[in-house]
Amino acid sequence: MTATQLREALSLQILAEPDPQRDVTGGYAGDLLSWVMGRAQSGDAWVTIMTNRNILAVASLADTACIVVAEDSAVEEDVVALATEKGINLYRSPLATFDLCCRIGSLLGV
Amino acid sequence: MSEPVKFHFDVAGDNFASAGEASVKVKKLLRQLNMDPETIRRVSIAMYEGEINMVIHGNGGSADVYLYPDRVKIVLADTGPGIADVSLAMQEGFSTAKDNVRALGFGAGMGLPNMKRYTDVMEIESEVGKGTTVTMEVFLPGKKPC
Questions:
Q1: Which ipTM was obtained for this model?
Q2: Which residues of A touch B49 (CB under 8 A)?
Q3: Shortest CA distance to B112 belongs to which of B126, B100, B98, B99?
Q4: Each residue of B113-143: pLDDT tens digit?
Q5: Which of residues 42-101 of B touch A (CB under 8 A)?
Q6: Which of A87, B2, B37, B58 falls between 20 and 30 A from A15, CA-CA?
Q7: B86, B115 Cβ separation under 8 angstroms
Q8: pLDDT in tens, B24-55
Q9: Do A38 and B37 make contact, defined as CB atoms within 8 angstroms?
Q10: pLDDT-based confidence at residue A7 (cuts at 50, 70, 90)
Q11: Domain range for B48
Q12: Does the distance separating the beta carbons of A38 and B110 come in below 8 Å?
């Protein structure tokens, strides 16, 4: 499933989508950046409520397929601009982390 | 043995806005060199964690990356306060980070353990009041000595 297909299936808000065809192969949830960095897998959809610009470095280096910001957590404009610049798909949803994970898991057949 | 290709970066202390820039640059460079994705991921993650540690604790410093035919070596050196008990610092969950750092999602006590997990060799030289130098090596697939 591509990032765009995931976004459409979950009705996610697009904050940045510079890599729409990126393959989503799994999911990970977490807000502690080092924890995410150490455990998220390449190709994961990463669900978090953390929105400072360091999430972009973590997503880039851990090579996640996209970031899904849960619970409509506020995202600064400069973070959105940087996501586009760094090629990171950044979405947002009013759903809570647990609900998002359930739905992502269902979509991916986990 | 042939001379390694070397990249040098300066890491600013206490600047979370630019934290991780050196690691992202290294990731790009390794991609341009067509290195395999898993090695790039391991090098990037280990270097980022070290870079963040330098920003949080070490008052910044230098990051040097050496590319050998069989491995990537990363040397991170700071002149910060040093680590009093390295074995304690290596334990998952142990952290001396302050609340403002934790609020950003750092300080989970996973930095050094992640660096160890993602590298083949990791050495820490630290002296309280002088600073810390972390040397890490990641071997390319099939190149790790037995």
A1: 0.78
A2: 34, 37
A3: B126
A4: 999 999 999 999 999 999 999 999 999 999 9
A5: 44-45, 48-49, 52
A6: B37
A7: no
A8: 999 999 999 999 999 999 999 999 999 999 99
A9: no
A10: very high
A11: 5-139
A12: yes
A34: chain B residues, CB-CB within 8 Å: 49, 52, 106, 108-111, 114
Distance separating alpha carbons of residues B39 and B27, to the nearest angstrom: 10
Pair B70, B139: CB distance under 8 Å:
yes
Nearest CA in chain B to A49: B105
What CA–CA distance (Å, rounded) separates B78 from B57? 9
- CA dist B99 and B15 (Å) reads 16
Residues in chain B: 146
Asked whether the beta carbons of residue B110 and residue A50 sit closer than 8 angstroms, the reply is no
Residue B145 lies in a domain: no
Which structure tokens are listed for A35? 């924890």
Residues of A in contact with B108 (CB under 8 A): 32-35
**Domain CATH number, residue B23:** 3.30.565.10
The verdict on a CB contact (< 8 Å) between A38 and B114 is yes
Rounded to 5 degrees, what angle do the CA atoms A66, A70, A75 make?
A: 80
A57/B105 touch (CB, cutoff 8 Å), yes or no? no
Q: Which residue out of A42, A50, A61, A67 would a mutagenesis test of the B interface target, given it has the greatest number of B Cβ atoms within 10 Å?
A: A61
All structural domains of chain A, each given as residue ranges with its CATH number in brackets, are 3-108 (3.40.1390.20)
Interchain pair B105, A52: CB under 8 A? yes
